[in-house]
Write a structure and sequence with these properties.
By secondary structure, this protein is mostly helical. The chain has three helices and no strands.
C-alpha cells in the first residue's frame, strides 16, 4: 500500500489498521467514511504512532481514540 497517495482508499486502510491495533470494542463507531482526504496527514500521523508501538497503554489508546473522534467529519 502506497500511503504517500492521499485518497479515501488509503484512509480506509489506515483506519482499519488503527481499529485492529487498538482492539476497539466499538470499532463500528469509527467508520473510514467519516474522514476526508483533507484530514489525511493527521490520520497518517496517528497510523504511524499506532504502528510504531508494540503495546499501547490505556491512556495512549484513550488519547488516540479521542483524537480520531475530533477528526471525524
Amino acid at each position: 500500500m502506497d500511503l504517500s497517495q492521499k485518497n479515501q482508499q488509503n484512509i480506509e486502510f489506515m483506519i482499519d489498521a488503527i481499529k485492529s491495533k487498538l482492539r476497539m470494542a466499538s470499532a463500528s463507531a469509527l467508520q473510514s467514511s467519516a474522514f476526508t482526504v483533507a484530514q489525511y496527514d493527521d490520520i497518517l500521523d496517528i497510523y504511524e504512532i499506532v504502528n510504531s508501538k508494540s503495546n499501547l497503554s490505556i491512556s495512549e489508546v484513550e488519547a488516540l481514540v479521542s483524537e480520531l473522534g475530533r477528526l471525524r467529519a
